[in-house]
């Protein structure tokens, strides 16, 4: 039996009786299953053949085998936070992991087993009673799956490095439906690829084995907020002090609008993670002593926590809104303040924001010095920059998307590449890996999934298939 809707062919065949929860296109709950967990309210006009709401690894393996039987692709959704909604692909079986949860902590060695759908907030809430933490995504509803596959720009990435370096092993379902363990000793090429491949990973991760960290007992923050007329002096100050700043302190500069105040602002935020009040105060004191005059709002060494920081991030990234996002690593030799001035000072809506994350010293870690793992992740610089254009009315789509395109048309000559997590391959081509790492990754993709069963990088017209991305600016 077949019919059509949305201009797509339907398959709801009586001879197919899968033993796992599958929602075909002709189901009354199809639209909810298709995009109900997509964070970006700018919904994609793409229609999967069906959605499998998996609750265990068996469902995932069976769904892959069904896709092979039908000659279609599978796509995967962990948390639905990808701005370009990579999981929603035409004529694919979408495997949604939103009902598949696993959490187990080995207290003796601090190793956590977690399913890809576990969010940073979930994981750290469960780790907290054990005095442990994991540097997941800053936004509370970012799930581990996409976050870690893209590299994991998590808490204190500036000093601790990318979270994917704390992945000890993964369990996967391959493109043929086989279940495997991957680590440094077995299926090591897949393990290498998983740490930085992003949505082009040629298998489906069902479980991460993660090295957790001791949780700090004194999390404190300082902030210095300037009017945008003081952009240059504020930004230059934080650029100058960040490379040698305390190694437990995260630093970010944000161009935003402050509730209750008119005009744009520049917010400098420092968050430190210590085990003693005096240590926290000592870590934040140098910034307090050197901050340029003119800040219109400020605080020093204010008590905070991961739950509070998650709430603040949620407020800055509200649900039910339309988003266009892009990012880049600015060349270390660029005049960063000048290059990013327009992005910070011409925001197109009051909810939009631009950020710069300090990445040095972790951006200088190398495989040769033993501080960086040999893995697919291989693109970074001292300066991570991203724009988050946020609005509500569909009528503003063209102007908001146009603003982001214009910003990156000007900034592109000063970028060395981009981070997968805040990218849209349909809009802009650039580099995401080092030259050799990119070639190796695409070869691994073709080895493990030569038919392109696992939907990979959603480029323009979704045509990259098993070949993958060119990794060229």
UniProtKB/TrEMBL annotation:
A molecular function (GO) term: oxidoreductase activity
Pfam families: FAD_binding_4
SUPFAM superfamilies (alphabetical): FAD-binding/transporter-associated domain-like (SSF56176)
Highest taxon of source: Eukaryota
Annotated FAD-binding PCMH-type domain residues: 44-215
InterPro entries per UniProt: FAD-bd_PCMH, FAD-bd_PCMH-like_sf, FAD-bd_PCMH_sub1, FAD-bd_PCMH_sub2, FAD-linked_Oxidoreductase, Oxid_FAD_bind_N
Reported cofactor(s): FAD
UniProt xrefs under PROSITE patterns: FAD_PCMH
Gene3D superfamilies, per database record: 3.30.465.10, 3.40.462.20, Uridine Diphospho-n-acetylenolpyruvylglucosamine Reductase, domain 2
Keyword ATP-binding: no
UniProtKB keywords: FAD, Flavoprotein, Oxidoreductase
Family: Belongs to the oxygen-dependent FAD-linked oxidoreductase family.
Name the UniProt record assigns to this protein: FAD-binding PCMH-type domain-containing protein
Organism name: Staphylotrichum tortipilum
């Amino acid at each position: 039996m077949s019919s059509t809707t949305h201009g797509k062919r339907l398959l709801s065949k009586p001879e197919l009786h899968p033993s796992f929860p599958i929602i075909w296109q002709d189901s009354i709950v199809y639209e909810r299953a298709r995009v109900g967990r997509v964070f970006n309210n700018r919904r994609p006009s793409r229609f999967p053949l069906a959605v499998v709401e998996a609750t265990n690894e068996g469902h995932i393996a069976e769904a892959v085998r069904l896709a092979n039987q039908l000659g279609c692709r599978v796509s995967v959704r962990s948390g639905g936070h990808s701005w370009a909604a990579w999981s929603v692909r035409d004529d694919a079986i979408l495997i949604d992991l939103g009902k598949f949860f696993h959490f187990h902590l080995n207290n003796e060695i601090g190793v956590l087993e977690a399913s890809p759908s576990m969010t940073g907030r979930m994981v750290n809430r469960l780790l907290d009673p054990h005095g442990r933490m994991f540097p997941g995504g800053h936004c509370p509803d970012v799930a581990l799956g996409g976050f870690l596959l893209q590299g994991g720009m998590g808490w204190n990435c500036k000093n601790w490095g990318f979270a994917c370096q704390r992945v000890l092993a993964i369990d996967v379902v391959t493109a043929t439906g086989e279940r495997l363990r991957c680590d440094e000793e077995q299926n090591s090429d897949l393990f290498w690829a998983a740490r930085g491949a992003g949505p082009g990973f040629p298998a489906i991760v069902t479980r991460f084995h993660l090295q957790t960290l001791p949780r700090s007992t004194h999390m404190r923050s300082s902030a210095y907020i300037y009017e945008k007329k003081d952009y240059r002096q504020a930004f230059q100050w934080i650029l100058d002090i960040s490379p040698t700043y305390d190694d437990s302190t995260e630093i970010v500069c944000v161009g935003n609008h402050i509730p209750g105040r008119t005009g744009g602002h520049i917010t400098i935020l420092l968050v430190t993670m210590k085990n003693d009040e005096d240590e926290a105060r000592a870590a934040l004191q140098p910034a307090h002593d050197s901050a340029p005059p003119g800040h219109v709002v400020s605080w020093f060494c204010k008590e905070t926590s991961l739950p509070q920081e998650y709430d603040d991030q949620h407020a800055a990234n509200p649900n039910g809104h339309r988003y266009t996002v892009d990012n880049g690593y600015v060349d270390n030799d660029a005049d960063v303040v000048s290059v990013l001035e327009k992005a910070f000072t011409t925001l197109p809506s009051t909810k939009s924001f631009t950020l710069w994350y300090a990445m040095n010293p972790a951006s200088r870690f190398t495989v040769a010095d033993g501080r960086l793992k040999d893995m697919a992740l291989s693109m970074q610089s001292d300066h991570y920059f991203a724009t988050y254009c946020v609005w509500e009315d569909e009528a503003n789509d063209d102007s908001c998307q146009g603003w982001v395109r214009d910003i990156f048309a000007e900034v592109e000559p000063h970028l060395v590449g981009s981070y997968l997590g805040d990218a849209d391959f349909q809009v802009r081509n650039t580099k995401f890996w080092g030259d050799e790492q990119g070639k190796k990754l695409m070869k691994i993709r073709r080895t493990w999934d030569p038919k392109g069963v696992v939907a990979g990088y959603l480029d323009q017209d979704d045509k990259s298939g098993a070949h993958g991305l060119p990794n060229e600016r």
